[in-house]
Amino acid sequence: MAALTPYTYIQCPCSDFSTLGRSSDPNLPAGTEADDDDDRTFDPRAPRANYTLYPLEYLLYCEDCHQIRCPRCIAEEIVTYYCPNCLFEVPSSNLKSEGNRCTRSCFQCPVCIGPLTVTSVETKPDPSLLAAPDNAATPHAGPYALICSYCAWSSAEVGIQFEKPNGIHAQLAKLRNGGSTRLTAKERKERRKDPSFRPQPATEGQGTPNEAEDLDLETQFANLKAFHQGQLANPNSADTGLSALGDLGFSSPTSLSRIMSIYTGGSLQDKKAKSRVGAMREALDANEGLQLAKLDESAAIEALRSEGHGSTASAAQLADQPPNLGEEHLHGRGRFTSELRPIPYLLRTKRSKRCPVCRHIISKPEAKVQTTRFRIRLVAGSYIPSIAIRPLSLSGGTGTGTGTSASGPAVPGALLEPLRPAHYLLTFKNPIFETIKVTLGAPAKTPGRLASKVTVLCPEFEIDANTDVWDEALNQGGGSERDKRRRRGEDGAAAAGGGGGAGSQSNINHQNQLEVGKIWERGRNWVSIVVEVVPASLRLEEGDPPLAEDEDVLEIPMFVRVEWEGEAGGDEVGSVATRDREAREKRELAYWCVLGLGRIRP
Amino acid sequence: MSSKRTPHPPSGPRPPVHLSSSLTISDTAQLTGTHTIEIRSESVIHPRARLESSVGRLAIGRRCVVHERATLGAAPVSSAGLGRVEGVEVAVTLADYVTVEVGAVVEAGETVVGEGTVVGVGARVGAGAVVGKHCTLTPYTEIAAGEVVPDFTVVYSNGLRRTDKRGVAELKNKGMVRQIDVLRRMIPSNPAKFA
């Protein structure tokens, strides 16, 4: 079984049941639900918990609301759009007109998504092998192709070659697979007049030459739109020769009026009504945007037969393909790798994050694309204490009998023995510059089917402020007031010597025993406490459902309440700052977290 | 790891070599084994490349490049490959213009790599495999023992294959010539050490 590193996940208060429930049932007074929630133990195995637990590193903190903010409860704003390949910033106005892809020469291989480079495909005059290095200096010329350096895919393979090595995006937009250029409307018109371009006379006797003309999607849409707009503007201009046909069509408004006239019996007004409503006809030829579906797939079948399955594009490759407006028509498109096109890079964004409540910015990246720094970044790690978990091995020490026969697994990540008490050291580290008071609450038994017993030996303690390391060192020399305070803070634990590393070392030596209500170890801005767990047995009763995935992981829900005295003011605009500048304000922060200790041995 | 920095001189007898006078071979390349190692003209053997001829002869064609830590003629790892090492005459044959990139392994046992093929970084060509001409084995590709890869195949490391229809074999060979030209100026050659 895979070893499990102990972890701590913190539940963001945004997913609090009380706040979630309130909106759905406004009639209930808010207080009752909050009470409800207070009684409930957070269950880390609840399906909902999957979406509310985050490692400390993922969390942000709003300084104004004094609340944790998770990726789910922040409002995001896009700062810049940029191409991940050329790191070019794209103005958002361009984005609207040109789409969300890089319009410079950044392309991805459609087969393996590697970056493509523009390379000359022209065959140079034979360099006399190893002799002439000056050959390398000859300027590249001739047709260019996009080449993938990873898998050797080349756009020449699908018949796309470029005349110039720059402005590839614009050139590509005009090219179809196979190398034929996309016709502009003007060219199309000229072509229609030119008899040499006329498609083959319909040998099968079906389909007029007009229908055989291929339009690309963009032109087809433009034609259709123009046609329908013309129809709407001037319904009676429709050629009368088709009106008889139009009358019968389902889509024709005349059909409706005709049926209605039957019911109303106004047969005399029929003629008038008809002229009023007018006949809307459908598009009839390519000029009007009609494209016949090509149901003849023998070419595709033939290609499949000759080239095999390997020549077809995979679903992932097709999904990566950007929409191509120069494409011929929708029917039977994009099944072969020969129909894949280079993919322009999708643009990426840099986002700033705001608190949804007070709208203050809690994370703002530098607008420049090249820098990865942040202007503002309020990470939760610098506001709430971090919790580190370490198995505590008592057997290694002097082992003077204290009645505790147990110890945690010596190796981190080792399996927990069922029904045997194990000890874990929780180290709380205070990141803020104030002394904080921490109160822990954990259920005596973990929720869920396999209830392990949990005892937090010291659920209430204080952690010193995160002061400068040098302050500490300097103060120590004088045997300062601070040192005394520390000793008082020991709550009677056998404290000895000065603080710092030496002190904590001696702590262990003196007291290799677990006492309820006492801190195990304490440092400049951190405190270690002991948690005793008795893992449940994984033996299941007959008829019980089998163990779910990761159900054998011992997870302890723990309620952490942090209290400190911060500087008051600053919250309310225009508060009397002058008067109580020095006044301290009591603050508290409370949240659930989950400690994953390890797997229980089956 | 540190011992790799200064390669030990190959223990045991030196393999008989048949080296062209125009090749470039670093003196920190490691040639081991008992059979002949033949390297033809203008090939480049990078420092710390390993050529093992304990199973059979190694035949390296013209204008091949064997990068550092690449191994030619390695003992097969798969059981299918192990069956192929008995009584082979030519362990590995590299045709002309073959590139074996960093850390790639070509196993011994009548293995053939065709002309102009690139064996990518960390790729492994199994014993007895026959890789066609102008193939590209992308990094970390595995070619099973005894497999036959047709000409102009691009093998992706996830097993996908594709035929290279660029038709740039000529160009590629020319590029290779240029690369060799640069390499021979960068790598101090010392074929006398192995002779």
Could you give the topology of this structure?
The complex is a heterodimer of chains A (about 600) and B (about 200).
Chain A: E1 7-11, H1 17-24, H2 30-39, E2 53-55, E3 60-62, E4 67-69, E5 75-82, E6 89-90, H3 92-98, E7 107-108, E8 116-120, E9 144-148, H4 168-174, H5 185-193, H6 209-212, H7 217-233, H8 243-248, H9 253-264, H10 270-277, H11 298-307, H12 315-320, E10 343-344, E11 348-354, E12 361-365, E13 374-377, E14 386-391, E15 422-429, E16 436-441, E17 453-456, E18 460-463, H13 469-477, H14 481-488, H15 500-510, E19 521-522, E20 526-534, E21 553-567, E22 584-599
Antiparallel strand pairs in A: 1-2, 1-22, 3-4, 5-6, 5-11, 7-10, 8-9, 11-12, 12-13, 14-15, 15-20, 16-18, 16-21, 17-20, 19-20, 21-22
Chain B: H1 2-5, E1 17-19, E2 24-25, E3 30-33, E4 37-39, E5 44-45, E6 50-53, E7 57-60, E8 65-66, E9 71-74, H2 79-82, E10 90-94, E11 99-100, E12 105-107, E13 111-113, E14 118-119, E15 124-125, E16 130-131, E17 136-137, E18 142-143, E19 148-149, E20 153-155, E21 161-163, H3 169-186
Parallel strand pairs in B: 1-4, 2-5, 3-6, 4-7, 5-8, 6-9, 7-10, 8-11, 9-12, 10-13, 11-14, 12-15, 13-16, 14-17, 15-18, 16-19, 17-20
Antiparallel strand pairs in B: 20-21
